[in-house]
Amino acid sequence: MGSAPGKLVEFEEAIDIVLGEAARVAPRRSERMPLLSALGRVLAEEIIADRDQPAFDRSTRDGFALRASEAGAWLTVAGQIRAGQSPPGDRLAESSAAGIMTGAALPEGADAVVMVEHVVAEANAIRLAEARTLVAGENVVPRGAEARAGDVLLGPGQRLGAAEIALAASCGYAQLTVYARPKVAIVATGDELVEVAEAPGPHQIRNSNSYAIAAMVAAAGALPERLAIARDVREDLRERTAQGRATDLLVLSGGVSMGEYDLVEEVLAEFGAEFFFTGVRMQPGKPLVFGRLPALGDDRMCYFFGLPGNPISTQVTFHCFVEMFVRALAGEAGAGPNWAQATLAQGVAAKAGLTRLLPARMSGIAVTLVGWQGSGDLAANARANCYAELLPGRAYAAGEVIRVLLR
């Protein structure tokens, strides 16, 4: 269970807490749709091989099908087999070979394929070129080597990319059953915010956070619902919280620090919220809140995240924590932060106290920190394509391998 408000946790502990709760959630329903429409969705059924793959001994090269033991002798060429064409019904005669194309089925009696550039041809006969060798099974994929009829090739919880779509197509699935997208309510808070189409006053800013969160929610496989801006008054926050708790997840940005008008935690507590943590030892993103609200009439809990209002803090904490939770709600199995390793291009001085996730740009296996002016610098964040993880109290030399959070 969760903790009372006021619990500050270490970065890795926060990840473990979110992963633990993500393991509890499950998608609420599924739907059936055409194969290509399922791209990017999460599979809710098994994909089963309807026949052996390949369904025949398949050539992987253009050349000649033959018995490997006869390759050094002159062999009579008996016709040619194209991809999609049935091989001759008669068994391949001894001392003979059949021309064959890539993807075609070997004739009965053949056990190898010699590449066309590895033979010497004369009239209607071929033999293996000098200094070339051939063994049984070479350039051949045996029937059933990839899968046997009845094998389960994919299972529920697999996100469907191009490779998975191709596999389903090869098994005859014109339609797939996928999990329905969860709904995520998004609330940006603050008196300083105006909507994007409005001209901000001298000390106002446009509401970029709800658009960023909506984009990240959609990329993670859910349906974003942007609610109206919540001003820094309890009535607004209560109304948005009531609206948001009817969805699968409520994500708020701003109002989670220690200021006089930071009211998010107090309003959530009024709704009976259970808080798992109310801060994480990280930079940016320290005032991060995670918990859940009591069940509604259908006995469904609504989880929530309260993200810091500074734009980069919002996006970093989303990628660290919210993204994997959204993916779990969408039905994806084993979702976690999208870590990779890279070689640091420059030295970085130590800084005590907090795990830092700083905007960086990864090119190949090298990662370079992006110069920025703090967690409100959207331009610097757009120049980055990842976040470099720097551990507290640790100095780094150029060339060290570090962990980076992909986005």
Spatial extent as radius of gyration: 30 Å
**% residues in beta strands:** 25-35%
Overall average pLDDT:
95
**Proportion in helices:** 10-25%
Largest sheet, strands/sense/barrel: 6 strands, mixed
| Number of DSSP-assigned strands | 27
| Overall shape | elongated
Number of helices: 7
Structure summarized in a few sentences:
The protein is an alpha/beta fold and 407 residues long.
Could you explain the architecture of this structure?
- This protein is of the alpha/beta class and about 400 residues long.
- The chain contains 7 helices and 27 strands.
- It has helices at about 10-20, 160-170, 210-220, 235-245, 265-270, 310-330, 380-385, and strands at about 10, 30-35, 45-50, 60, 65, 75-80, 95-100, 110-115, 120, 125-130, 140, 150-155, 175-180, 185-190, 195, 205, 225, 250-255, 275, 280-285, 290-295, 300-305, 340-345, 355-365, 365-370, 385-390, 400-405.
- Helix 1 (about 10-20) runs parallel beside helix 6 (about 310-330) and helix 3 runs parallel beside helix 6 (about 310-330).
